[in-house]
Write a structure and sequence with these properties.
With 155 residues, the chain is α+β, with helices and mostly antiparallel strands. It is built from three helices and eleven strands.
Length: 155
């Protein structure tokens, strides 16, 4: 069964993940834990972002954020990780509520072979922008060199 973003649920070691990306990150965390790079991690921790309430006779449900992973680092810090290819509008709102309410670091990660593996979406966007700028300056420079050599052969 696929999600609204085209990913398929994956079962691995008795856990069901929302995507191949998430299952792959789970494998990475297992390796980090086995090699004492992190203390431990939790799968799909739930965070209460806003309590349920009633106003003018209407009931509003609570808002929860179900993260992909919670990583407990060697230095005692806690990082909450979501594996995504894109930052959705829904996630942006939940991230804002999470950042207001919790002291933990919230990271959005993906896998980029060209960038050497696991990377935050924020860093990936910066890297892509830089690669695009380099590519554009290289192609414009190439056009200038061709134009200059054409001018020299004419003159």
């Amino acid at each position: 069964m696929g999600s609204k973003y085209g990913s398929k649920k994956v079962e691995f070691e008795g856990h069901i993940f929302d995507s191949q990306l998430e299952a792959r990150y789970f494998k990475q965390l297992k390796w980090l834990e086995a090699n004492k790079q992190i203390l431990f991690f939790r799968i799909q921790p739930r965070y209460l972002l806003q309590e349920a309430f009633e106003k003018n006779g209407k009931k509003y449900r609570r808002i929860d954020y179900l993260a992909d992973f919670e990583i407990h680092h060697l230095d005692g810090s806690i990082e909450v990780v979501d594996c995504k290819g894109v930052e959705t509008t829904d996630f942006k709102l939940k991230k804002k509520l999470f950042e207001y309410r919790f002291p933990h670091t919230l990271s959005l990660v993906t896998y980029s072979k060209i960038d050497g593996g696991w990377i935050t979406l924020e860093q990936l966007a910066k890297n892509r922008k830089l690669r695009k700028a380099v590519k554009e300056s290289g192609s414009n420079g190439g056009n200038r060199r061709r134009q200059n050599s054409m001018d020299e052969t004419r003159g």
